[in-house]
Design brief:
11-stranded antiparallel beta sheet; alpha+beta; single chain; elongated
Length: about 325
């Protein structure tokens, strides 16, 4: 007698259930590579085998680069390593596996797409032991994502675009606010001025430091002999000797004796270098400055501030960023 379709369904359904771990190795790896961070965290809670797979560095490198690569640079990595070595993270990563799992689970639940089933089983999963290597990329990602790690980066047009900082980029310590997808910035004190705090800084106004130079140190300029009129530059500037440097956008200009005709221009052969800041009105004391290519050190005075090191901006994305920040009105 021939079996009916219902019989075949019952036969299949009565067999052993297939687990995701029964999938071929390559298929499972492809699935994990396509999961977002929240998905990896969910899968890590299923069993020890998936936990080890979902916490591997090669899966988290992509997520780290996509979300944090533009604003987290070498300085932030050094700060993270020091953070771990000093034991500051011990209250989060070394206080016990059960409490660490609670933190990870709350991170997963913060994503709107987490199903109610996960919430229903939260009491069971809180007893799961989930050791996280503090040196792993996953650990660093979660520290950034939860905002508990303050990292160094730079902020364009600091303090909500205050007119005194238009077209500049200053160092700050940043903490991520997951609920608003913005950052809190802490700027170092300026002279007698206390630490300035800015909330709600969007990601678009952030970058990793372009050069590995402390805001309190003079950057060694290695591009002076290569600068020509029209080149884009950033230059260190500070109000006085007690202030940290910020990076200010400008362009290389022509000497007064040059009419700007590129066929007859010899400005690049002169020891005198003209820097223009065209966001300021003609005649403004901030519109233009001159430096010496051959013997450039910090130059300036208490009235006009002090100009420091220079870096040439070659990256088109950086140039576009400065142009997007260009003020609507010319500054005085």
């Amino acid at each position: 007698m021939m079996s009916t379709s219902n019989d075949r369904v019952e036969e299949v359904s009565g067999g052993a259930e297939m687990s995701v771990l029964d999938l071929p190795e390559l298929v499972l790896e492809c699935i994990l590579e396509k999961l977002p961070p929240s998905g990896l965290c969910n899968m890590a809670a299923v069993c020890s085998s998936l936990r080890d797979r979902c916490m591997s560095d090669h899966l988290w490198e992509k997520h780290m680069k996509q979300k944090w690569g533009r604003i987290v640079g070498p300085a932030a990595y050094r700060e993270w390593q020091w953070h771990l070595a000093s034991g500051k993270d011990s209250t989060h990563l070394k206080q016990g596996k059960q409490r660490l799992w609670m933190k990870l689970f709350s991170f997963v639940r913060s994503f709107s797409w987490v199903r109610s089933k996960v919430h229903d089983t939260s009491k069971q999963t809180t007893t799961t032991r989930l050791p996280v290597d503090s040196n792993s990329i996953m650990s660093w990602y979660l520290a950034l994502e939860t905002g508990r790690f303050w990292f160094p980066a730079q902020v364009y047009n600091r303090e909500n675009g205050h007119v005194g900082f238009i077209l500049s980029c200053y160092d700050a310590e940043l903490s991520y606010d997951q609920s608003t997808d913005t950052f809190q910035a802490r700027y170092p004190p300026h002279g007698r001025r206390p630490i300035a705090i800015e909330c709600g800084v969007p990601r678009e106004r952030l970058r990793a430091a372009a050069v590995d130079t402390s805001p309190h140190d003079l950057h060694i300029s290695d591009c002076l002999n290569d600068l020509h009129p029209g080149d884009h530059i950033e230059i260190q500037w500070r109000r006085n000797k007690e202030f940290p440097y910020g990076w200010w956008y400008g362009v290389v200009g022509h000497l007064e004796s040059c009419d700007g005709n590129e066929n007859f221009c010899h400005c690049h052969n002169s020891e005198t270098l003209i820097l223009e800041f065209n966001q300021y009105t003609p005649g403004s004391r901030w519109r233009k400055t001159t430096i010496n290519r051959k013997d450039h050190r910090e130059e300036g005075n208490e009235a006009d501030g002090f100009y420091g090191g220079i870096r040439k901006v070659n990256n088109e994305e950086e140039i576009k960023m400065w142009k997007r920040l260009w003020p609507v009105e010319v500054l005085e």
